[in-house]
Amino acid sequence: MLVLVRWLAGCSLRFLHALGAALGWAGYGLSPSYRRRLDANAALAGLSAAERRGSVAEAGRLVMELPRLWLRPRDQAINDPVRWEGEALLEELLARGKGLVLLTPHMGSFEVSAQAYAERFGARQPITVLYRPARQPWLRELEETARARPALATAPATLAGVRQMLRALKRGETVGLLPDQVPPEGLGVWAPFFGQPAYTMTLAARLVQQTGAAVAVLVTERLPRGAGYVVRALPLPQALPERPGDDAAAAVAINRSMEAVIRGKPSQYLWGYHRYKAPRPVSAP
User: How many domains is the chain partitioned into structurally?
Assistant: First the structure.
């Protein structure tokens, strides 16, 4: 498997995205459970048929671009063009010197977001990103080595990882996480997401409330025909409650913010992600 992944890492982004579109449709056609979940989640958000079809191909492109992102030399910049929009917002928030929490939904090339930030702003303020380790040993080892880059550290989705992120914020650094990722049992609350209850992490709001850090959204759009990426820094559409402990209100604010961001480019959201599952032994609402 690693031999194939290394070969793919040397292919052009345009070829990988074309191959990925075919892979996305193959997965959609061969897996009834994946197909039902993607269609149901897209329907909740009111996607058109064209947007839903686009999301099938984009999911495959996400998978196929990973070898090129992960296996380039550790100190080498992203191989493909990266254009920034909204970097003035990050400049303003970094100037406060109180740490920064960046929220990135499962949208577009979310693997690019942290790497692009590290290349652009890491020398000034490093970033630590939260990730959930893969179950397969070979993939877990690849993730751990490929994601760690200059000015970019990784923290596992464990109590130790949360402490690592708190320490980074208290040093005035940046942390990044996927707020629409289903958290472990006890680390979330139920809140609406596109009209359906979803178990939503409380970590993002708590990090902001406990450290006084600034918060923003960072998303990366995948451009057509392998032309590269656009990284956008956006203010959080709905402000978080200032009072600590109001986890339910914070979860609602984050989910509404992510909905607003996703509606900007719905075909690039990962609708096949199992967003509405209940982590055991949490019971459904």
Answer: 1
